[in-house]
C-alpha cells in the first residue's frame, strides 16, 4: 500500500488504476490515488453509481492532500455478488472492504445513498470512522426518502425523451444555470477514457431503490451517537433527498457543520465544486 520514493504520486482520478480485493467471498473493485500513509478518505458512492460516477473536480483536490479510495458496492460495476436490499447490509460490506485493505480507521466522504450507508457505519463501527462528510443525504425515516424511486423513474423517463443523462434531471435544477451545470458535470464524468467501469444493471438498481425505500420508512435512529466531526452539505432544492433533511441531520448530529448552496439541487456540491472542494479539503485535513 506504500509508494516508493521515486514513484510519482497520482492525484488524477481519471488515471487511477482499478484494483480488486476480496472479503467475505465478494471481490470489490476499487481505485486509489493521492499520497499513501496515514488515514485514507474512502468515498461512498450514490444510487446507481459505479466507480466512474465520481466528479474528478471533487476527488482530485482531496487526493492532492490525502490518500483517497473509491469502491464499487457489492453487486455494482466490477464488484461481484448480489446487491443488498438494506442500507445496514451495505454498511457491513463497507466495513469488510475497508478491513480487507488493512485499515483500522478511515475518513468517509459520502454522497446520497452513500451518506445513508456512512451513517450506519459511523454508528455501528465508531472506532472505524474518524471524520464524516455527508452530502445530498438524509436520516433513516426521513421525510419523502421513500419516494426516491418514483422521482428516479420519472426523471429517467424525462431524460430518455431528450436523450440526456438522467443525472442532469435528478441532480440539477432545470433552469439555465442548472442545465449548464448538469451538462458540465456529465462531461467531467467522461474524462476517464480507459479502463471504464461496467454500468449498473437494472436488477441492481431496483435492489438499491428497495433499500432506500426501507431506509425512508424505518424508525428514526439516534444520531446523537455519531460523535465523529461531521460536515453536511447539499443544494437548497434537492428533489431526491429533500434539503430539509440535511438541516435535520445537522440538528441531530452533535457539533456538525452545515453548508447549503443556493439555486442548486441534489448535486449542489458538483454545481458548486469550486466552492465546496476547498471546504471539504479543509475539513478533512483539519
UniProtKB/TrEMBL annotation:
<dbReference type="InterPro" id="IPR050471">
    <property type="entry name" value="AB_hydrolase"/>
</dbReference>
<dbReference type="InterPro" id="IPR029058">
    <property type="entry name" value="AB_hydrolase_fold"/>
</dbReference>
<keyword id="KW-0378">Hydrolase</keyword>
<dbReference type="GO" id="GO:0016787">
    <property type="term" value="F:hydrolase activity"/>
</dbReference>
<protein>
    <submittedName>
        <fullName>Alpha/beta hydrolase</fullName>
    </submittedName>
</protein>
<dbReference type="Pfam" id="PF00561">
    <property type="entry name" value="Abhydrolase_1"/>
</dbReference>
<feature type="domain" description="AB hydrolase-1">
    <location>
        <begin position="41"/>
        <end position="270"/>
    </location>
</feature>
<dbReference type="InterPro" id="IPR000073">
    <property type="entry name" value="AB_hydrolase_1"/>
</dbReference>
